[in-house]
Amino acid sequence: xxxxxxxxERLLDAADDVLFVDGSVSxxxxxxVRTASASPPSLYKHFGSKDGLIxxxxxxxxxxxxxxxxxxxEAAQSDEDRLLALWPALRVYQHERLTExxxxxxxxxxxxxxxxxxxxxxxxxxxxxxxxxLRKYALPIAGQQADSLAAQLFxxxxxxxxxxxxxxxxxxxxxxxxxxxxxxAAFTTTKSA
Length: 193
Known about the structure:
77% of the residues lie in helices and 0% in strands.
């Protein structure tokens, strides 16, 4: 039963459902605590504020996402597969782990133009993870053009996430991955020329 789980976990689960899947970051605290079968004081006890809850929920999502992406990279058989592991990881994440309407991080950034320091930090950490990994895995493929390829794949990824608002996520991910493969092929051709 839901109320048998620790209140902290119920609040994080409710934040996921209410803020990132079915609603928006602007959803009032009373909706979150009602969904969690918790009380407002319990939210403040565990997280200090709604922003504290948002930051913790995003931090938990980032940890789960990082592990799913790590697993996809580890399963990859080639440099190209490691670079493009982002899209298979996104499939697993959406299907098996934390389904979301689109990107919880982008949605939060859009809803909170001036986020609190804890929220801003987790948003920055997620962006750094994406940029740094894409650059790292682009290096063996694009060499001196790795920054450019990584930047374009970052845009392809965020485009994939935005497309999930308009199409079923499976289709959006397939189209995003095809776009990414086209980009990689263009850089591979340029590098070998």
